[in-house]
Design brief:
mainly beta, 4 helices, Immunoglobulin-like, about 35% strand, 26 strands, 2 domains, Secre_tail, seven-stranded mixed sheet
Length: about 450
């Protein structure tokens, strides 16, 4: 009997294999800028005024990664923020499709008092580094990340990795070929402090970003789609996946160019210019990912508010969880979204500037605010805030329902009855919460701080 049971077990495992676990309740991607636009205009954003203005063709120091979790909590061991290659270029076939290109070790890092963890870098030139002309000594020149000021005033825990660059690759990218190396093309990084596996430039363009727990060790360079079918396999089958999003371009999505497609492994996939006639988008249908088509590769993606799901629609009012869009160059840190509505979701992002107050803080929630007009907003106030025991909700119109959510998206208070307009918050732990106040068809979203 035991031998029979063992045989059945072996057959079951051999036939069906193992599968990764999805945990959608612990750690979340909050905001990603993995591929900031380059600058064709002349700039100098270093601290060295003697450097001639230059064009910039690097992501280093301008990328931004933000995560959300329980306020003040420490991230478990073996947790990584990873990037999986999904570019179906013919040169990647059999080698790089489904390869973990980057793995940033989040283990032991702590969320801030508001539940946010941000990772940025500063870059300092090593002794002997030279400018574009090959003679100007730029030793000690520093590039400070453009988010530093806003992050300093937030409640987030900010990990600023100090990078040292031994040199810079300068190139001539003027179409006229004038022979002048006017473009900063690459920082050659020689050291990272702390070294958590991030050198200021993460792989992008057709990539899936995940937060995973990998007890087998650092997953960098693992090939997790050996069948090249968009379904995770190999080492990934033992992962716990906390959150995931795919951002895919369109260069390999159509037939006729010897490419094999684009591969998305996330539970939400933003893809550029996908048509119903394009057969080469590969994904795991068994996890029912949300697929969102935009007119251009989005270089900004973020979760809305304290959402935890994977919905996204153009109007932004259907209980949406994500937003994404195309931001323009030279507008950091208050990135300006494209005026083309087809490049942004929700479309209300178009032609707007990303509020710098989002850095290190909970993001805006378009779903919660879409039905609010200015009059309704002006008639609602919540005080005191911060508060210990009670908050008073003052409104010129009747409030039908009050809901309070923690930063993991869990509803912790829900009531349709207020006692003299007071809401008892004494049972809440110290931290930051989001309040959702409903009046008829209108909804207001307020941030609440429990002392």
């Amino acid at each position: 009997m035991k031998k029979t049971l063992l045989l059945i077990t072996i057959l079951f495992v051999s036939t069906f294999g193992f599968s990764q676990t999805y945990d959608n309740s612990t750690y979340f991607i909050s905001e990603l800028i993995p591929s900031p636009p380059n600058s064709s205009s002349l700039i100098n954003d270093s601290d060295n005024a003697s450097i001639p203005d230059y064009q910039s063709d690097v992501d280093d120091g301008i990328e931004y990664f933000e995560f959300r979790g329980t306020p003040n909590a420490t991230i478990d061991n073996d947790v990584y923020f990873i990037m999986i290659d999904g570019d179906g270029d013919d040169s990647d076939v059999g080698a790089n499709i489904g390869k973990v290109r980057d793995a940033v070790n989040l283990s032991g890092l702590q969320f801030g008092a508001n539940g946010i963890l941000a990772i940025v870098v500063d870059i300092t030139m090593d002794s002997g580094a030279l400018g574009a002309d090959g003679t100007l000594d730029i030793s000690g020149t520093k590039w400070i990340n453009p988010y530093a000021t806003d992050l300093a005033s937030s409640g987030a825990n900010v990990v600023t990795i100090q990078l040292t660059a031994s040199s810079i690759d300068w190139t001539d990218e003027d179409p006229s070929g004038d022979g002048i190396n006017e473009t900063l093309n690459k920082f050659n990084i020689s050291s990272k402090t702390p070294d958590i596996g991030y050198d200021g430039s993460i792989s992008d363009q057709s990539a899936t970003y995940m937060i995973v727990k990998s007890t087998a060790g650092n997953p960098k360079n693992e090939l997790v789609d050996s069948n090249e079918d968009g379904v995770l396999d190999g080492a990934a089958t033992s992962w716990t996946i906390y959150d995931s999003v795919s951002i895919l371009d369109d260069d390999d999505i159509t037939t006729g160019n010897s490419e094999v497609g684009e591969f998305g492994y996330g539970k939400i996939i933003f893809v550029e210019r996908l048509l119903s006639t394009d057969p080469l988008l590969h994904f795991d249908a068994s996890i029912s990912p949300t697929i969102v088509t935009l007119d251009q590769y989005p270089n900004y993606v973020a979760r809305q508010g304290v959402k935890t799901g994977y919905a996204a629609t153009t109007d932004g009012v259907d209980n949406d969880d994500w937003m994404a869009g195309r931001v323009n160059s030279l507008s950091y840190p208050s990135w300006k979204f494209s005026s083309n509505a087809a490049r942004n979701i929700p479309t209300s992002l178009s032609s707007t500037n990303l509020a710098t107050s989002t850095y290190g803080e909970v993001n805006p929630d378009f779903s919660a605010t879409a039905s609010i007009d200015g009059v309704f907003t002006s008639k609602v106030s919540v005080y005191p805030n911060p508060a210990n025991e009670f908050v008073t909700i003052s409104s010129a119109v009747e409030i039908n329902k009050v809901e309070v959510y923690n930063l993991l998206g869990k509803k912790v208070i829900s009531t349709s009855k207020l006692n003299n307009n007071n809401l008892d918050i004494s049972s809440l732990a110290k931290g930051v919460y989001m309040m959702k106040l409903t009046s008829g068809e209108s909804v207001a979203s307020k941030k609440l701080i429990k002392k």
